[in-house]
C-alpha cells in the first residue's frame, strides 16, 4: 500500500540536499605599495652650501593613486626643503591598500631626505664666487 503523505516530505528533504552554489572565495587584503616616488628638487645652492635635513610627512592615500592629504610632522629645518618635499610627495603614485577587494584609505609616515653631496659638484664653485 502506498502512503501518499510520506512522499512530499521525503522529496523536499532530498531536494534540499541537492547541489548548491559554493561561497565566493574570500579576497585577501593587499597592502599599500609605492609605484612612483621621484625625489624632490634639491636646490643646488643649498646642496653646495651643505644645507640638508629630513622632512617627515604623514600622507593619506585613498582609493586613487595620489596622496589625498599631506601633513608636515617634522621640519628639515629649512622652509624651502620642506616645501619641496611636500610638492614632490603630492605627485607620488601608489597602489592603494585593499580590504575585501575594495581600496581603502591608509596613512603612512615618510621621511624625505636631503643630503648634501659627499663630493662637491663643479657647479658649486659658481655659488662660491657669489659669496
Please, could you describe this protein's structure?
By secondary structure, the protein is an alpha+beta fold. The protein is about 25% helix and about 30% strand. A 3-stranded antiparallel sheet has the order 3-2-7. A hairpin with a 5-residue loop joins strand 2 and strand 3. The longest helix has 12 residues.
> Which range does the strand content fall in?
25-35%
Strand order of the largest sheet: 3-2-7
| N- to C-terminal distance | 116 Å
Poorly predicted parts? none
Radius of gyration from the CA trace?
30 Å
Quantity of strands, as a count? 7
Q: How many distinct helices?
A: 4
Shape: elongated
The secondary-structure element order is HEHEEHEEEEH
**Mean pLDDT, rounded to whole units?**
85
Amino acid at each position: 500500500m502506498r502512503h501518499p503523505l510520506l512522499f512530499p516530505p521525503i522529496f523536499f528533504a532530498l531536494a534540499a540536499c541537492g547541489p548548491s552554489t559554493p561561497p565566493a572565495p574570500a579576497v585577501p587584503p593587499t597592502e599599500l605599495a609605492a609605484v612612483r616616488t621621484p625625489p624632490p628638487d634639491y636646490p643646488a645652492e643649498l646642496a653646495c652650501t651643505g644645507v640638508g635635513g629630513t622632512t617627515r610627512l604623514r600622507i593619506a592615500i585613498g582609493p586613487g593613486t595620489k596622496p589625498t592629504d599631506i601633513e608636515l610632522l617634522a621640519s628639515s629645518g629649512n622652509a624651502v626643503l620642506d616645501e619641496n618635499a611636500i610638492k614632490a610627495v603630492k605627485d607620488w603614485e601608489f597602489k592603494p591598500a585593499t580590504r575585501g577587494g575594495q581600496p581603502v584609505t591608509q596613512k603612512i609616515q615618510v621621511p624625505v631626505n636631503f643630503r648634501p653631496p659627499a663630493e662637491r659638484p663643479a657647479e658649486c664653485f659658481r655659488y662660491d664666487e657669489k659669496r
